[in-house]
Amino acid sequence: MNDRAMPWRWTCGVVALLCGVACARGGGANAGVPPEKVADFVHAVIAADRATYAEEVVHRLQDVEKVVRATEQFREEKGLPLPSQMLRMGAQRAAKSGGFRYALISAWAINKANMPRTDFETRGLAAVAQAPDAVYRSTEEVGGKRYFMSLYPDVAVSEACVSCHNGHAESPRKDFKLNDVMGGVVVALPLE
Amino acid sequence: MLEPPLLLLRALRVPLRLKVGTLLALAVACLSAAFLGADRTVFVPGPTSDGHHVFEESCGSCHRAFRSVATEGCTSCHAPERAPDTHPPALFDDPRWAPTIARLDARECVTCHGEHERAAGGVTVDSGFCFGCHDDVPGKRASHASFAPSSCGQAGCHNYHDNSALNVAFLARHTAEPDLLATRGVLERAVPPRQPPPEVRFPPGEPLDPGLVARWQASAHAGAGIGCPQCHDPQERGFRREPSDASCAGCHAYEDRTFRSGKHGVRRAVGLADLGPSDARLPMREAAPPHLRCSTCHDAHTADTRRAAVDACLLCHDDAHSRAYLASPHGQAWRAGAAGARPGADAVTCATCHLPRLETEADGKRRVAVHHRNTLTLGPPDRMARLVCMDCHGLPLALASLLDERLVANNFRGRPARTADAIAMVRALEPAPDGINGGTR
Questions:
Q1: Is residue B71 within 8 angstroms of chain A, CB to CB?
Q2: Could you say which of B66, B232, B360, B416 has the lowest number of CB atoms within 10 Å?
Q3: Which long-range contacts (CB under 8 A, 24 or more apart) does B424-428 make?
């Protein structure tokens, strides 16, 4: 090994080291915010909008000022969409531009389409009903695609939630109280 | 017996390989010629649906090379039928629906609307398909306990894409309505204030028909300031004795667009020769005009929409329903009604139901215009009831009449044989239903 080769080896070594550092940092930047965090951000917006709609729109206009009713046939009856319909319409729009999905479900669903449909949903609803502060998460493969799934408890934040569900002819459960877990919000983020 | 070409080949004593090769080459050449030619109907694998058969030679309208028919191809034309859609594809494009989608892919139109086969309403899926998801209904609703899975869409009860006329709340609000409502809801079209007709400007040397000029001077066109050059020389590119429909579309863009979106105009929309009586599956008159253009129904020099609303239809249509119109109660009222260039809001013409006047904001201005998609209200019956019949009639009579085949054929002469099931069921609900789909009743 001759001495003239030394600076080369040093240069190569330093370049390799710098590349390694850059890659590690770049890799970190690519990984970005972890999926739990992304799901939490998404859910924070859904939950905030949902509570605001229930309080400031449905409860205020329907129960306090009594000017308009929230009804499933809101177009026909010139009324307000139900909070669950609001969420579903928003979810369909968000899917178009954002590529991710969210949905409102419950084991005591008025609408059968909102009953748990997968093992993940069944397990998650049971878990959040036990521990309302927890979030149930799992990575699932569906139709050849991987999703990071989070299920958040959906809580009766307003008297409007309770009275409407308990009084609804098709509600399988009629004893909800304020702050009960009524169901869950599923956020599904595609991983690739 | 050998076919003539084979006999010929045998006579020429050609080796077998060459015979087969020649025949194969001939077949490939014929098929290629057919494929490259304008008429590709030899490739149509079965009878095209009643909705699409008039443009079946336009394979490219639905098919792209080496790809299956995409939902976007359907929705680009079928938006009006799906606004708002109770089961939009976007709903099912969610991992939580994956197990259901594996059984019945509700994201794709072709799952239920298979093409190149004929089926009522274009629905080719098994009629019990609703129960794939809604099998809880008979258990949940006493009134539905005995219903067969195949009956959901029958008898004017449910409509997969649009339940706006068939939900309990809507039905309940209309079940007590009389046969004839006190107020009529057919919209009047605004007539612009009449101006003095513009002067006649025809190139010197072009023969001019004085009778035609007099008719035009009395017409709505002249009253709106539309003179010779607007149609005969629209961009001052030279006089045209027979203006094409493009010059109509220059002003009547909404009418042109809606015309192209229906069965009457779809051939034009996809670049085929304009629709003719031979394209139809319904019986057409022998003396029918060869092609359907603006001028088939509208005479630009009289702008008489009375003719366009009835007489023009009967130039071609020769089925029982059309033939029965003039003697029907609607037809008799129309014949007895006020004369004039436009049917009034009281008259029920062919166009009242099949080319309805609707409010539109299409051109940036809210106005009443004739929707020229002739298939807009054709089916299912609840669609016609809601968009048209209920302008004058109560829902019970409208729905029952549309579901009564005898009345449809005789153009609604007489009373429906029975009450529509949907109406009877909602009448049986006591007290007035509240909540989702009438609750558990």
A1: no
A2: B66
A3: B425/B143, B425/B157, B426/B168, B426/B171, B426/B172, B426/B175, B427/B175, B428/B143
Cβ–Cβ contact B93 with A under 8 A: yes
Residue of chain A whose Cα is closest to the Cα of B168: A73
Burial grade of B76 (CB within 10 A; 0-12, 13-18, 19 or more): exposed
**In this predicted model, what pLDDT tens digit does every residue of B64-113 receive, in sequence order?**
877 778 888 888 888 877 777 889 888 888 899 988 888 899 999 999 99
Q: Which top CATH class is A5-58+85-190? A: alpha beta
- The rounded percent of chain A whose pLDDT value lies above 90 is 58
- B111 inside 8 A of chain A by CB: no
Verdict on whether the full-model pTM lies above 0.90: no
Q: Choose among B88, B438, B441: nearest Cβ to A92.
A: B88
Provide the pLDDT for residue B439. 38
How many residues in chain B?
A: 441
Whether ipTM > 0.90 holds is no
Q: What is the pLDDT of residues A18-47, one digit of tens each?
A: 545 544 444 444 568 999 999 999 999 999
- Name, in order, each residue with C-beta under 8 angstroms of B16's C-beta and a sequence gap of 6 or more: none
How far away is chain A from the Cα of B96, in angstroms, using its nearest Cα?
Answer: 6
- What are the phi and psi torsion angles at B359 (to 5°)? -80, 135
d(CA B6, CA A183): 75
The four Cα atoms A11, A16, A18, A19 give a dihedral, to 10 degrees, of 140
Tell me how close the Cα of B137 comes to any Cα of chain A, in angstroms.
10
Q: How far is CA B313 from CA A12, B237, B318, B345, B378, in A?
A: 86, 34, 9, 19, 15
How is chain A split into domains, by residue range? 5-58+85-190
Mutate to test the interface with B, among A76, A166, A171 (most CBs of B within 10 A): A76
Chain A nearest-CA residue for B133: A113
